[in-house]
Design brief:
The protein is of the alpha/beta class. It contains 10 helices and 10 strands. Strand 2 and strand 3 form a beta hairpin. Helix 5 packs parallel to helix 6. The radius of gyration is 22 Å and the shape is elongated.
């Protein structure tokens, strides 16, 4: 059977739809084979809606199953042999397919451009997060302060209305992490209310246990759902003994990356000491 190879326009439209919806997908491309058409593509969304066909009805279910496994991992792209995907299909053992992850670029919205917020924005930009940095003080979000090549793509927002700024920056919330590192309870409350009004991948708030509990208790009294409040990382970040603003920023970003990648945040060498 000839594969139903989608046109470039159809494929581009479907990939664009995945990104606009904040969904995820895998694009599998035949890059080597004596039985399949090299260049044939199939797009598998995380809801298992499929575009395209590799021309082998026995292979398609195996490709979809492999796409699900691929999305549960951390690779951005990987070449997989046919013998790994469908060992029972011996005539496809010599085939190779390139699996590529399709998802929105990671975004980080930071509320508060003080020492920690500024350090976090710079660090996140270095690891290719799309960063929005918000503050109500114009002098804290000037382009002159963030002028290096890596920092020039940081979106700087000055808005006295924290909730409005958060909602505008977050959009649908898909693929977005929010770090609340403001200077006071009132600002924290306003930002967290806005953050909890949309679905995001991660929400964290800086402060001591006492300070963060005050804010969470206040929102609990306002009838915010317990399940939503339980997802707030507060105090924010991993416990690395951070002291300086840069170290605190590192601890925050480490937790955000761990959440995104499915990491546990533990020591990689723990097995050696077991």
């Amino acid at each position: 059977m000839s594969p139903n190879i989608p046109s470039a326009k159809q494929l581009n439209d479907d990939v664009r739809a995945v990104l606009e919806e904040g969904a995820r997908a895998v694009l599998a491309t035949v890059i080597e084979s004596t039985r399949l058409i090299v260049g044939a593509k199939i797009l598998i969304r995380d809801d298992q809606i499929v575009t395209g066909d590799l021309g082998n009805q026995s292979l398609n279910p195996a490709i979809i199953a492999e796409a699900v496994r691929f999305l549960s991992g951390r690779d951005e792209a990987r070449t997989i042999r046919g013998s790994e995907i469908a060992p029972q299909l011996t005539d496809l053992a010599d085939s190779s397919l390139l699996f590529e992850r399709i998802e929105v670029e990671p975004r980080l919205v930071i509320a508060g451009a003080g020492h920690v917020g500024a350090a976090l924005a710079r660090l996140a930009a270095l690891v290719r997060y799309r960063v929005t940095l918000i503050d109500d003080r114009a002098e804290f979000v000037t382009r002159e302060t963030f002028s290096s090549p890596a920092e020039k793509f940081i979106e700087l927002v000055c808005n006295a209305n924290w909730a409005e700024a958060i909602r505008d920056a977050v959009g649908s919330g898909r693929g977005v992490s929010i770090a609340i590192v403001t200077r006071g309870h009132k600002q924290d409350e306003d930002c967290l209310r806005a953050a909890l009004s949309v679905r995001t991948d991660y929400v964290g708030m800086i402060g001591s246990k006492r300070r963060t509990n005050i804010v969470l208790d206040k929102l609990r009294e306002e009838d915010f759902a317990a399940e939503h409040l339980q997802k707030v990382r507060a105090p924010i970040g991993l416990d690395i003994g951070a002291v300086s603003p840069e170290e605190v920023a590192l601890a925050i970003l480490a937790e955000i990356v761990a959440e995104r990648r499915g990491g546990q945040g533990g020591s990689l060498s723990v097995w050696r000491r077991a």
